[in-house]
Amino acid sequence: MAAPKRGRSASAQSKPGRSLALILIAIVALTGGMFLSGNKTPRLGIDLAGGTSITLKAKADQGSAINKANMDTAVDIMNRRVNGLGVSEAEVQTQGNDNIIVNIPKGTNSKEAQAQVGTTAKLYFRPVLASEPSGTATPSPSPSASSSGSSSPKPGAKASTSPSANASPSASNKADNGKAKASSPTASATSQGRAVTDALKAGSTPSPSTSASGSAKPSATPSAPASGAAADAAKLRAQYAALNCTKPADRANAGKSAKPGDPTVACGQIRGAWYKYVLGPVAVDGTEVKKAQAVFDTQGASGWQVQMTFTSSGSKKFANVTGELAKNQQPQNEFAIVLDGDVVSSPYVQSAITGGQAEISGSFTQQDAQSLANMLSYGALPLSFQEQSVTTVTAALGGEQLHAGLLAGAIGLALVVLYLVVYYRGLSLVAMASLLVSAILTYVIMSLLGPAIGFALNLPAVCGAIVAIGITADSFIVYFERIRDEIREGRSLRPAVERAWPRARRTVLVSDFVSFLAAAVLFIVTVGKVQGFAFTLGLTTVLDVVVVFLFTKPLMTLLARRTFFANGHKWSGLDPKSLGAKAPLRRTRRPAGPATGSADPKEA
């Protein structure tokens, strides 16, 4: 029974080339992927590559105070926003009681992150009471039910919308098949807000005389509102009449400070032309959006769009508001999607829409769609922020520190190699080859992780890679010492290599597990640049296991067959005499003779 077991063991030991071929193929594949992706170097953090530093000052919103809880929430949302755009190693931290400092390294999407990092991203769905072109620009005709599509709205139908006014100068048409997102028009309105809304509907709300939509008032006239509501309605009409959305000053104030429960005026850009609106109280809050993602419409001509899924309560409100709006004539069968006070889109509806899903489509670029979906996914900031300063951070100081760090790493590596050569002699070639393979894998994987997960190499990460040199070298030393222990016991090199491996393997795995566990805990409990150190340390620890198993051990198996190492040359590092080896282990046979305790037949 023992012979087949030795045969399988010998067969496994005789094919170390398979492991070496496997790791060689992995290196070639990863390197090829690095060159094909165009990322030949790792992405650098702000301390090494420079970037942009933004100072934001908090402003209290209605119902939101500037306190530590709200500031911490804002920091968390901003951090997720910039990292959601692929800008890793960004630093978001508070300064004082009401300031937030955002450091964004150079790289892909850094400009987009800068544009939206302080955007409040408060999303509301408000019913439209009146709308018309603003200024002297000649707008495109507002779409009608017949021109926007031949099919009637249904659950999941798209509401084509344009990007926000400050996101894209060219927008799609004002509305398409109405996929509405709101609840009943008075769901969150205050009693005063409802009264003002009724007054606006009942009174002479300015009609869009220059608009091609030809809006008409609803046939039903509500009861006469109170005098206070009538005065507020008249004030709102005056604001609407005076509003000129082509002026940046008017746009900056229109609807920005309105309470969710009150009617307001607002501006929106449709196909490059500005429209002004009178909007009712908020019907659905943006917090009812459960999920938002940017997708490309491969089956139609909509291009990039943002798909949204509502919560269960949002789905009910969504169905209610579309049912209410469908009873009215244009423009009061429209609802406005309002983002930070600007009308993103105002699609109309023809019937109640159920299902809890919606799509915003229009002249979106990929970045426009992803930016909007990113803000909707991570939620609104609890406070408004004003940009105080934007400065460019140079990498001069970081470059000097990097140079010093690399010099320290080179000195440490040289000392490790010197120690290996002096103490292990020929075995040092195995160690240096293993270190080289580990360095290649680390470099290539870091380069690929930049575009894949947004990994950026900063100074702490460089320190983690330098510390990993010692961890990797320690694994080789453990294996070499186990082999030497077997040779001291009198075994030849080939069996010593195989017998030493199980013991060395356990030690290496336990040691690397402890290192990886420490790196994982450090990554979880820390923030900012320290996470770069922990990530790099964990990555190199995993690669150490891969290199030892797939390269170092198979290479030692091959070298044990070479005369230079097998005969224990004095420069091989495995000389039995210098190691104080015992006499070779040999089996001794007892001389043939009668069994113990048996009697001589002659004596019998």
Word description of this protein:
By secondary structure, this protein is an alpha+beta fold. 47% of the residues lie in helices and 16% in strands. It has 18 helices and 14 strands. The strands form three sheets. A five-stranded mixed β-barrel has the order 4-7-6-12-11. Strand 9 and strand 10 (303-310) form a beta hairpin. Helix 12 runs parallel beside helix 14 (459-488). The chain is elongated and about 110 Å long. Mean pLDDT is 74; it is low at 1-12, 137-188, 204-226 and 596-604.
Please outline the helices and strands.
Layout: H1 2-13, H2 17-37, H3 46-49, E1 51-59, H4 68-84, E2 91-95, E3 99-105, H5 110-116, E4 123-133, H6 145-148, E5 159-160, H7 191-202, H8 227-242, H9 248-253, E6 264-270, E7 273-279, E8 284-285, E9 289-297, E10 303-310, H10 312-325, E11 335-339, E12 342-345, E13 357-364, H11 366-378, E14 384-393, H12 396-424, H13 427-453, H14 459-488, H15 493-525, H16 529-559, H17 563-566, H18 576-579
Parallel strand pairs: 5-13, 6-12
Antiparallel strand pairs: 1-3, 1-14, 2-3, 4-7, 4-8, 4-11, 6-7, 9-10, 10-13, 11-12
Helix pairs in contact: 2-13, 2-16, 7-8, 12-13, 12-14, 13-14, 13-16, 14-15, 14-16, 15-16
